[in-house]
C-alpha cells in the first residue's frame, strides 16, 4: 500500500492570510466607528453660540470644522510580519490633540481610548480565527 503526501502550505498560508485580513478589517471597523463617534460633540468655534469652544483635557476634542472627524481612515494591508490594520489621520495637528504638547496643550486623546474601549471585543474577534 503506497501513501502520497501532498504539501499545500502555500494554499493554507493564503487562506489564513485572507481570514486574518478579513478579521482585522472587521476589528478596524469597530475601532473606526468608535473614534468617529467620540469626535461627534460640536464645539462653539466658527461663530457658533453657546457651549464650550474646546473640550476639557483628557476628553476627545470637540469638532469645530469636522475636518479631523472626516479625516479618520482605516487601512488594512500586508505588513512586514503579515496583515495589519492602521487607523488614524494624516492631519498635522492630530498628534498634538492626541498626545498634547510640551508647552501648553493638554492631551485630548481620541485614538487610544477607542482602542482601549474595544480591546476585549477585538480580542474575541481575533481569537475566533483559531477556534
Q: Mind explaining what this structure looks like?
A:
The chain contains 4 helices and 2 strands. A two-stranded antiparallel ribbon has the order 1-2. It has one domain. A hairpin with a 2-residue loop joins strand 1 and strand 2. The mean pLDDT is 88. The two termini are 35 Å apart. The protein is mainly α.
Helix content: 40-55%
Given helix and strand content, the structural type is: mainly alpha
Give the strand line-up of the largest sheet.
1-2
The low-confidence runs, each spanning 5 or more residues with pLDDT under 50, are none
End-to-end distance, in Å?
35 Å
What topology emerges from the helices and strands here?
Elements: H1 9-38, H2 67-71, E1 73-79, E2 82-88, H3 94-99, H4 112-127
Antiparallel strand pairs: 1-2
Gist of the model:
It is built from 4 helices and 2 strands, in the order H-H-E-E-H-H.
Keywords:
single chain, 131 residues, mainly alpha, two-stranded antiparallel ribbon, 4 helices
Amino acid at each position: 500500500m503506497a501513501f502520497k503526501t501532498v504539501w499545500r502550505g502555500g494554499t493554507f498560508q493564503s487562506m489564513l492570510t485572507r481570514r486574518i485580513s478579513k478579521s482585522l478589517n472587521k476589528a478596524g471597523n469597530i475601532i473606526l466607528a468608535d473614534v468617529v463617534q467620540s469626535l461627534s460633540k460640536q464645539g462653539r468655534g466658527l461663530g457658533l453660540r453657546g457651549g464650550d469652544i474646546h473640550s476639557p483635557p483628557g476628553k476627545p476634542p470637540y469638532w469645530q470644522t469636522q475636518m479631523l472627524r472626516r479625516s479618520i481612515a482605516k487601512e488594512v494591508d500586508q505588513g512586514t510580519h503579515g496583515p495589519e490594520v492602521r487607523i488614524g489621520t494624516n492631519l498635522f495637528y492630530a498628534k498634538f490633540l492626541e498626545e498634547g504638547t510640551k508647552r501648553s496643550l493638554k492631551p485630548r486623546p481620541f485614538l487610544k481610548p477607542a482602542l482601549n474601549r474595544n480591546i476585549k471585543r477585538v480580542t474575541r474577534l481575533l481569537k475566533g480565527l483559531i477556534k
